[in-house]
Specification:
binds zinc ion; 14 helices; Rossmann fold; two-stranded antiparallel ribbon; Dehydroquinate synthase-like, alpha domain; about 375 residues
Amino acid sequence: MTAPLELPRSPALIAGAGSLARLGPRLAQRHGRGARLLLVADPGVAALAERVEAALAEAGLEASRFEGLSSDPTAAQVDAAAAAARELAAAAVVGLGGGSALDVAKLAACVAPEARPAADYALAARPFPAGSLPAVLIPTTAGTGSEATRTAIVTLDDGSKVWTWGEEMMAELALLDPELTVGLPAHLTAATGIDALVHAIEAVTNRNRHPLSAAPGLQAIALVARHLPRALEAPADLEARGGVQLAAWLAGQAIDISGTGVAHALGHALGALGHVHHGRAVGLALGVALADNAAAAAEAHAAVARALDLTREEQWTAGHLAGAYDALVDRVGLERRLAHERLTPESLLAATLRPENRPMLAANCRAYSEAELGGFCRRLLAA
Ligand SMILES: [Zn+2]
């Protein structure tokens, strides 16, 4: 018997091209005109931040921008954002950017009521303080699904990448406007879209798989397969951009229920050691494990193959699925070579086996020995 499933409230959602116009009126209604908001924005999307600020100002809201964050954000950056929210007496925190900005925004909103460092909450070591601020999350990439989950990933002072978790971290509102993703460079469109695909595949095939994660997860797989290549060929195609954005949201819901697997354990190790972009890291990592996973959990992977529309002409096999996955990774142009001075098969295996990655290894549809994981590490670095 599996444990009872408890789902949190979902964020309210505004989705579709032109959604940004709804943001100001909605927040003015919720917090009152004149309310102060902290806008946690990725420094790489300054032009979009100005658009958001203008939309908020038009509704009579005061936004103060915080841009002190990087990819692979640190706990110290979360602390700085939380301090800014306290200083401002912010009514809410608005996150704008990729997964890093959204993670910083929602974690800062949770820890802001007290001056305690964000690192103290890592790995759910303690509950969040009462009175967390509402978070509004506006992704400008389409992949991480951070806008749909109760987790955030931060890097601690020792370089380890750890997760934080809590009901309070679920956003109050997510706004998915595909117009905000049109300027995303091709390599990030590809990497974040593949992240969404890996989320969905791992969530619908791992040991915690559940009909309630299969429903959004399988739809996310179909949406990525259909729309990601088009979003790369025609970056301004709002239907394609919107399709990938919905896939990211749905895949986020799937991992929020069921979690991920071995590709995310390997991917976090690649990110921590070699600063490999998260989406590229997990995308390549799933490529080396997918055939073995599919052989071990055939029924769950058959559903993946159907969602990818692979079963029309040929009998589905594990090798066929892995080949189709590899072809998609190549089609979207994910760079395969992983070169970094700190990346060796030995260092990558050691990082994969760190305690913070154990839950993902344990959730995977089958267990892998250290020797097998070492083989994955060698194959990843041999490309
Ligand atoms: Zn991911």
